[in-house]
Amino acid sequence: MFNLEGKVALITGATGGIGGAIATTLHEHGAHVVLTGTRELVLQTHTEMLGDRRASYVVANLSSPEEADTLIARAEEAAGAPVDILINNAGLTRDNLAIRMKDEEWDQVINLDLSSPFRLCRAALKGMLRKRKGRIVNIASIVGATGNPGQANYSAAKAGLIGMSKSLAQEVGSRGVTVNVIAPGFIDTPMTSVLTDAQKEKLLAKIPLGTLGEPKDIAAAALYLCSDEARWVTGAVLHVNGGMAML
C-alpha cells in the first residue's frame, strides 16, 4: 500500500517542518524526492540525511515568477526524470489588520502563496497531461475556509488555492491527473512555537482532539493523495485540523 517507487516528487517549501516531513514520508515510500526552498544548507542537510540517490535539491526563490516558471524543468534535470508528483507547500504570512495592511504585504502573500503554485501547476501539467497521469497536492490552510482576523491576505490566498485546485481538477481529470488540497489546522512547527502558554491554552480549547497537529499528520495525508489508492479522489479538500473546523 502507498507504493511510490519510480515516481519523482517535487516538494516546495521543503526547508520547513511540513515540507520536510512530506519529503521524508514520500521518500520512505519509494519516491525520488526533489526538495526546493531558499536555504541551501538546510536543503543539502536534509537531502544527505535521506541518504541515497533518490533525493535531490534545487535552490529556488518562488517569489520570483521566472524561478517559479523554470522550477519544474530544473527539478526534472536534477532527478533525471519527469515530475510525477507536485506538492505546492511553500508559503509565507504577512499578518496585519486589513485597515493597516500595506499593498506590499498583500502582494507578497498573494504572489508566493497563490500565483507561484499556479505557475508550478501550469508547468507541471504539460508533462503530466502527455503521460496521462500525475498528482498535484496543494497545501492550503484552515483559514482559507474559516478566515482569520489579521490574515486577510493569507486567507484570500489559501481560499484562492482551493478554488484554483477545484478548477484544475475539472480541467485535467479526464487525462488521469488528480488535483487535491490539504488544509492543515494549527501544526506544531517553529511558527506556532512563538505562542505564549496562554495563547496555546486558548487555541487548544478550540480543538476537540486537544493537541496541536504534527508535520507527520500532514505528510500522511499527502502520501495518501499521491498514491494509487487515491486514484478516484480529485478536487477534494482534506481538512486535517483535529476537529477545530468540521467542514
UniProtKB/TrEMBL annotation:
First-level EC class: oxidoreductase
SUPFAM superfamilies: NAD(P)-binding Rossmann-fold domains
Keyword list, A-Z: Fatty acid biosynthesis, Fatty acid metabolism, Lipid biosynthesis, Lipid metabolism, NADP, Oxidoreductase
Protein family per UniProt: Belongs to the short-chain dehydrogenases/reductases (SDR) family.
Record protein name field: 3-oxoacyl-[acyl-carrier-protein] reductase
Database matches in InterPro entries: 3oxo_ACP_reduc (IPR011284), KR_dom (IPR057326), NAD(P)-bd_dom_sf (IPR036291), Sc_DH/Rdtase_CS (IPR020904), SDR (IPR050259), SDR_fam (IPR002347)
Domain called Ketoreductase: residue spans: 7-190
Role this protein plays: Catalyzes the NADPH-dependent reduction of beta-ketoacyl-ACP substrates to beta-hydroxyacyl-ACP products, the first reductive step in the elongation cycle of fatty acid biosynthesis.
Pathway in which the depicted protein is active: Lipid metabolism; fatty acid biosynthesis
Biological source species: Acetobacter thailandicus
Catalysis: reaction(s): a (3R)-hydroxyacyl-[ACP] + NADP(+) = a 3-oxoacyl-[ACP] + NADPH + H(+)
Annotated PROSITE patterns: ADH_SHORT
EC number(s) stated in the UniProt entry for this protein: 1.1.1.100
Pfam families: adh_short_C2
NCBIfam families: 3oxo_ACP_reduc, PRK07231.1, PRK12826.1-2
Summary of subunit composition and partner proteins: Homotetramer.
GO molecular function annotations of the record: 3-oxoacyl-[acyl-carrier-protein] reductase (NADPH) activity
Domain of life: Bacteria
